[in-house]
Write a structure and sequence with these properties.
Oligomer: single chain
Strand content: 15-25%
Number of strands: 10
Largest sheet: 6 strands, mixed
Structural class: alpha/beta
Distance between the termini: 35 Å
Shape: globular
Number of helices: 8
Bound molecules: adenosine-5'-diphosphate, magnesium ion
Length: 239
């Protein structure tokens, strides 16, 4: 079953040229789907449209086989990690992480259990009483990840969630995110411009350039049979 489907989706801002051009795409339940492309290629815009944070100019977006073009973000049953983290500045780390669960009236015991598990995994258990401004960039990034993960939404959208971490922590988080995604059977749409992340985490990878799909395939196919020179140079195969 498809978790997400895009049918002839296009996007332009005002009267500018299309930022995204006729995107057709199906993402299966439980799939780890990676979106790569250079800066400005339209990755964040595509993710924001799936989340419902950005209108689409043309086409249909389906989640769980249901057209969601007019559904607000809160009714799409997904979680999202933004590039800029978007933490509430006046709330503590703990309050930030639990915000969504409290709004959904998840019981206290369950909240505490998920909080403990998630914070251990993200190595932020010692930061719960701090405010976002008292955290480093990498710590904020992990809090944003924790807030998304704790919701246990079946569809998770992540926009370059590890870009602010040092190499060692990034390698650790790659493994943690992948393990968690498998364990919960999450459908993941994961934006990165890091080839190593794409190749090691993705069940399938989509390469985007100038708002157009260059190729969609599993890592080995992209590496061995790049559809064009752009994909070859981007994925780094010798061809
Ligand atoms: P990426 O995430 O791949 O770096 P984006 O999706 O952020 O790319 O941006 C794709 C293109 O859309 C860029 O050329 C960017 O300048 C443009 N863009 C993004 N948001 C807006 C906006 N709100 N208004 C006008 N242009 C925008
Ligand atoms: Mg972006």
């Amino acid at each position: 079953m498809n978790q997400v489907e895009l049918i002839n989706v296009s996007k332009s801002f005002d009267k500018q040229q299309d930022i995204l051009n006729d995107i057709n795409l199906s993402i299966k339940k439980g799939e780890f789907f990676v979106l790569v492309g250079p800066s400005g290629s339209g990755k964040s815009t595509l993710l924001r449209m799936i989340a419902g944070l950005e209108d689409i100019t043309d086409g249909i977006i389906k989640i769980n086989e249901r057209a969601v073009n007019h559904l607000p973000p809160k009714d799409r049953n997904l979680s999202m990690v933004f590039q800029n983290y978007a933490l509430y500045p006046h709330l503590t780390v703990e309050q930030n992480i639990l915000f969504g669960l409290r709004a959904k009236k998840v019981n206290k015991q369950e909240q505490q259990k998920r909080l403990n598990e998630t914070c251990q995994m993200m190595e932020i258990s010692n930061l719960l009483k701090r405010k976002p401004k008292e955290l480093s960039g990498g710590q904020r990034q992990r809090v944003a990840l924790a807030r998304s993960v704790v919701s246990e939404a079946p569809l998770c959208l992540m926009d370059e969630p590890l870009s602010n971490l040092d190499a060692k922590l990034r390698a650790h988080m790659r493994i943690e995110i992948k393990r968690l995604q498998k364990r919960l059977g999450l459908t993941m749409i994961y934006v990165t411009h890091d080839q190593v992340e794409a190749m090691t985490m993705g069940d399938r990878i989509m390469v985007l350039n100038n708002g157009r799909i260059q190729q969609v395939g599993d890592p080995i196919t992209l590496y061995n049979k790049p559809a064009n020179l752009f994909v070859a140079s981007f994925i780094g195969s010798p061809k």
